[in-house]
Design brief:
Layout (H helix, E strand, L loop, with lengths): L15 H9 L15 H14 L28 H4 L2 H9 L1 H4 L24 H12 L17 E2 L6 E7 L3 E8 L4 E6 L4 E7 L3 E2 L1 H4 L12 E5 L6 E3 L18 E7 L5 E7 L2 E9 L8 E10 L6 E8 L1 E3 L5 E3 L3 E6 L4 E5 L2 E7 L4 E10 L1
Antiparallel strand pairs: 1-6, 2-3, 3-4, 4-5, 5-7, 8-13, 9-10, 10-11, 11-12, 12-19, 13-18, 14-15, 15-16, 16-19, 17-18
Helix pairs in contact: 2-6, 4-6
């Protein structure tokens, strides 16, 4: 054939796009209402969309590229640019009946007769699942990669007991201790700064980077809803409640990590101390049957000799007190405190939730974290 498809560029007749759409929408389905990605419902849909796109869902990544990641199958349209190139209503109709649009297509029919083949996600609701995939893919390059994208994956998961992974973890460094729990929540504790550094949900971690080859680089959490929680130890000695929090590394201030103990469920409680103060930090996952997924954390603080000016830092960011006595952090996390009287303070350009500790004796500070 000698004819070639012209590159129209910006030199098209005004209104051509609109005229083509008039022809197109005669058979187009009305786009569904999809919530904002920043809303609570939107965040849950993004998590579901990521699961559906991965190897433990509808396995889209087996044939569709994901950025610069090639697939083991055909190199179909890139998932990261899909929502830029396709209309939502067409995407929805194609997902429901791909074999009608392209007879003989290799794409499996995931929603025969309008019903999902994966009943474990969003109660098997086909429309909600398609909403979830569209919202997840709408993140573009910011989308967290789906499970099974990398060839040499070694996914660690907790079954009946907690699983501990010690290695270079992104955002922490070489002294990170990551724990995955059967309740499908996870955390990373920093043994260098004695703090609860990262929280996340669902999948735990991929050990493939460190357990194959030379084990170079840092590993990121594998799951969803990743939150950077604390930057340094939540216990410090200050002149007053409103003093700036120390910026030096905990070890430079005389803090010593003293290991951790495991209970029968494999849950660790972390121990550290400085001067005449000993701290046991025990974060426990909330039961998976609870509506509020998260951790119930216990800070057991023992002060051997009278020490004035001890402060506990319970949250940092934009903090909103709630009528029920709890606090909302950065519009994405709920925190409740027991054992001390917490106070919201303006510190520079942010807020901090702090409380004073007694000069001596033993005190248990409770911190309930949901997100």
């Amino acid at each position: 054939m000698v004819t070639r498809m012209p590159g129209l560029g910006a030199n098209t007749t005004p209104g051509l796009r609109e005229k083509l759409q008039v022809l197109y929408v005669r058979h187009a389905a009305k786009p569904s209402h999809i919530p904002e990605a920043s809303s609570v419902e939107g965040k849950e849909l993004i998590i579901a969309g990521r699961k559906l796109s991965g190897s433990n869902g509808l396995s889209c990544i087996m044939c569709h590229r994901f950025g610069n990641k090639r697939t083991p199958g055909i190199q179909a349209i890139d998932l990261l640019t899909m929502t830029e190139r396709l209309r939502e209503d067409w995407f929805r109709r194609y997902m429901l009946a791909s074999n009608e649009y392209r007879p003989g297509t290799r794409m499996p029919l995931s929603f025969p007769d309008g019903k999902s083949v994966l009943a474990t996600v969003l109660d098997g609701d086909a429309n909600r699942q398609i909403d979830a995939m569209w919202l997840y893919l709408s993140q573009g390059k910011a989308a967290n990669k789906p499970t099974g994208l990398d060839a040499e994956v070694i996914i660690l998961s907790a079954d009946s007991k907690a699983v501990i992974y010690r290695n270079f973890i992104e955002g922490i460094g070489p002294r990170g201790i990551a724990i995955g729990y059967p309740e499908h929540v996870n955390l990373a504790w920093d043994a260098g700064n004695m703090n609860l550094a990262i929280l996340w949900k669902n999948e735990f971690i991929d050990a493939g980077k460190h357990w194959t080859g030379r084990g170079e680089g840092v590993q990121s959490p594998l799951g969803d809803a990743v939150v950077n929680f604390e930057k340094t130890s939540p216990i410090a000695k200050l002149t007053s409640l409103k003093d700036a929090w120390p910026t030096e590394a905990a070890r430079q201030r005389g803090y010593q990590f003293k290991g951790y103990s495991l209970n029968q469920a494999g849950q660790p409680s972390f121990k550290y101390g400085f001067a005449d103060v000993e701290v046991v930090d025990w974060p426990r996952p909330r039961a998976s049957t609870s509506k509020e997924v998260g951790f119930d954390r216990e800070l057991k603080i023992t002060i051997a000799k009278p020490t004035a000016g001890l402060i506990v830092l319970l949250a940092r960011g934009q903090i909103q007190p709630e009528n029920d006595g709890g606090f909302t952090l950065d519009n994405r996390m709920e925190i409740r405190v027991t054992g001390v009287k917490a106070e919201v303070l303006q510190i520079g350009d942010h807020q901090e939730l702090r409380a004073s500790l007694p000069n001596a004796g033993e005190i248990i500070v409770g911190q309930s974290i949901s997100w």
